[in-house]
């Protein structure tokens, strides 16, 4: 198939993120964190997958936890939480928390950052109001 033919078969617009995948030093430890702290549910993985992992889901959000190979050095867990680092953000509603407020033109988004067991940055936010205000029509 030529590159022109491939381009013709690409979707014209994306609907949503299906899932994110994280390499974990311990799938069990990460699974416990995402279930107990963020309320994710374990879902069945295809039995044909021949590597250790876990698929979790909540409200249309999917995360694939993948066991990191023992022969690969894991990055060091960051010593500080940095909101400018790579991270995944979840919209959180109806939960009180201390936050960072980011805003302009009367729209303020509250954000709370923390790490999972492998040092991946996680953000809880009420970002939808910013998205609705800033989307291009």
UniProtKB/TrEMBL annotation:
Protein name, UniProt field: VOC domain-containing protein
Residue ranges occupied by any VOC domain in the UniProt entry: 16-127
UniProt-listed PANTHER family: OS04G0538900 PROTEIN, PTHR46142
InterPro entries associated with the record: Glyas_Bleomycin-R_OHBP_Dase, Glyas_Fos-R_dOase_dom, VOC_core
Record-linked SUPFAM superfamilies: Glyoxalase/Bleomycin resistance protein/Dihydroxybiphenyl dioxygenase
């Amino acid at each position: 198939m030529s590159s022109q033919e491939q381009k013709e078969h690409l979707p014209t617009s994306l609907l949503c993120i299906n899932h994110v995948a994280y390499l974990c030093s311990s799938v069990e430890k990460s699974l416990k964190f995402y279930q107990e702290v963020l309320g994710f549910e374990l879902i069945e993985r295809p039995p044909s997958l021949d590597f250790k992992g876990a698929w979790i889901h909540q409200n249309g959000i999917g995360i694939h936890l993948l066991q990191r190979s023992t022969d690969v050095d894991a990055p060091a867990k960051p010593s500080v939480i940095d909101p400018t680092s790579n991270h995944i953000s979840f919209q959180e509603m109806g939960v009180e928390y201390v936050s960072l407020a980011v805003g302009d033109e009367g729209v303020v988004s509250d954000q709370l950052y923390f790490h999972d067991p492998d040092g991946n940055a996680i953000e809880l936010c009420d970002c939808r109001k910013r998205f609705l205000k800033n989307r291009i029509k």
